[in-house]
């Protein structure tokens, strides 16, 4: 308990420092004696605060404790004496000599006599030992260097100089964990608990709130919010070498009158730099941690540089002349080549960038002056000039909004190329409207605005009614960033002084309040993979581009390369979850999101302002940048603009051909509930025919196709036709060139076999795990760990951690991970095997979205594990029936779908420990489950070769169909398990059937970007297919990744794709091994492999073609 008490004191001290209670933190250090702040002590010495310095020192050591302590006290009082004497304050100097220095007289009588003689000198520099004395500031600096050596050698102080390495805001996190734990045990837990005090235990009351918005519990997860970042070992390492050196140099040194020897010049430079940095960087603790991250990132291998460079739009393909200087731009969310622009004179324009055509241009005009406030009329009369501060599209692109520099917001409806109609005009704010965005909480489309009046407002986008008012900022609000986690919707609002507040749509006040770096105008944005970034410029012109840990409200990473410019604010944008771009120094600066150093710059052939506005289209294929002389430059990859233009023209042609037939069929089909002339299948065939051409089912909504039609498509009941894509087992998987890339040797790609400490038999250079194989394999969502479930019901957990070779802590084939276990637990997580037969067992597991909890079963009871402690939190559902597959609900971690061997699907609420419903329809065991985030559906498949689509809102069956195999083939029996996985677009899914087919598939998965399919086979082959047409373009033979002495029976049983790196995947083997694959560094991508890659190309043999 004493150690925990010390830890708590240090956590409180950290909290006080983070909150700005510096004096209180120092008082706690003095009273506890646990930590000696060298920085604070140096500030006192360098500032000449002698009494405060001694008061602080006395709490840790007394004058006569040892010779080191005596030395420290003497140097402080000696310098105090000399400075007073140098100021000719002889009476005061005499008082110091008699009252303070006299304590050292017994062992230093001669020294005190010399100091007494100094009182008789007109200038202390006349004394030989003080001839080099310059001034007080320099003397203090030199003395502090000497004092540091003595302090580090002092046994009473040297173990208290290093503050433990504690994660930022650790005390807050512990409190959040406690609150989440209390919330989990509430009798009637609310979805958004209102926590207003820590003085008593939390009990839910029926008031919707979310005090823990930024914890993992915001995803409707009642379990304690934890992450791997919590597991930071504390250390109090001191520099033993320097301490010993100081000891040897000081032990023989007597007290002296002369000025201490400063030592090497490098020490002085270090002192100067440390002081400058400490003064310059605000919020040291956060900035120091990010600085360490920057140092780490700087030495990372540039494995993704080739990929990013290839994807960047950097060639100027079009220059648009807007007529006045652009202030805000945004591409249409669906029409990738339509650009919306606002300018300094209030003009609004729409451009088709593929052709350079101006679709429309609107000058500023008040639509209804009578409805405007008198204040706005007076302001406009006094100064009629108006500029556009922000333009923005609604999520579906059917509306766009314009925020002006005076009071007004105007909303247009947009249906087709040149048709934009006036929708709403709102006198929104007093002064300028600084930002505008759209959000749809509770499926109601809102326009969110902020302005110079320090207020954020939310308006109904259809009728203009004000729905919410958020007040509390103490400065004009500069920017907005709406977002949602699960079913909790909120909006970030940042004021011009850098204060960030987070608001829920409930008029109950801000939930979070913290500051952006630089305390200036800052914009925030989420990437598609849920990472939060901000970019801002302080009043002094310093710019900051950072990534946030949004669960902590702390800075995770600071990007380097922005320069000081007080004239304007830096603007930034995000491309495809890969790249950050910002306009600075007359160029576009580019960063890899995972690295802090500047990746490259794009000059766009020159002519850019100091801080140009930059904006990517949704797919990242085009980049618009504002230029001098009222111009906008459109950047693209080679040929991408022409390709987009051709594609959109094709879509338009398809629509014209399709429109008449579809309108007729749909109107006839929907005119009556039962239509003898047009069946559901007929409508579906038309939809499929169109879908095969446009490859974008969402377009059906846009052009008036009824939702019922789309349901026919998404829920099945379709004929196979050409829309069911070629399966891996089909004969058309051969590359069009008739060749594929075959890899036979380990040197032809990057391969890493993960370490294992399980008992093994050594044969040659290979280790075989005894009677176990990898049954299931998965990456965690953060991409830095791999989790495996073996056939003997144990779990293996590998974690990549920062080290000298890999400072990113992301999974990689370059550096081996650790087979990780918590320090407090020496065993493995092992599932229940009660009454289960290994031959009949179907292992399954699922990982929560916050990577902290695992649901797993190996034929026995289902167990919930805490991955940070390897602790079993609960165990449920004794078989029979046994669980065969598990899936977490994408919006609620508490809801599970559990497929069982009795053909049912159990929908279970972990928080309430209640069964929500049981879904019935399959005739054999359920073998696969997959949720679609976008369509609100659950898709299941089973050993009966059927696919069912279930509506998640009401948990009812919508459609079902039998799995269809190319060429009319069917599984060898209706007891073969089928498996399913959704594509990244959440509207398509992949199914595969392992077993007795010619191809012998053992497992398959999409790459994280949905561009590839990785598949493993029972003969040991690992193949990589193009997901768009299932062309096989790379095949990895067992000789490339298995040891020469491996058994012939070793083959992959499970395959998993990295969640963020599309070219990395891992396979689990029948011998218990796990292997990570990446393409060779020379290629960078699997798709970039060539026929000359290490001489690995070969013709597809006739017999191989027959098998595929």
Q: Would you mind describing this structure in some detail?
A:
Among the domains are: 36-160, no CATH class; 315-643, YVTN repeat-like/Quinoprotein amine dehydrogenase (Methylamine Dehydrogenase, Chain H, 7 Propeller), CATH 2.130.10.10; 742-757 and 769-966 and 975-1078, YVTN repeat-like/Quinoprotein amine dehydrogenase (Methylamine Dehydrogenase, Chain H), CATH 2.130.10.10. Helices cover 22% and strands 30% of the residues. The chain contains 19 helices and 58 strands. It has a six-stranded mixed sheet, with no helix packed on it. The chain is globular and about 110 Å long. The two termini are 66 Å apart.
In short:
This protein is of the alpha+beta class and 1108 residues long.
Short descriptors:
globular, alpha+beta, 6-stranded mixed sheet, Methylamine Dehydrogenase, Chain H, 1108 residues, 4-stranded antiparallel sheet, 58 strands
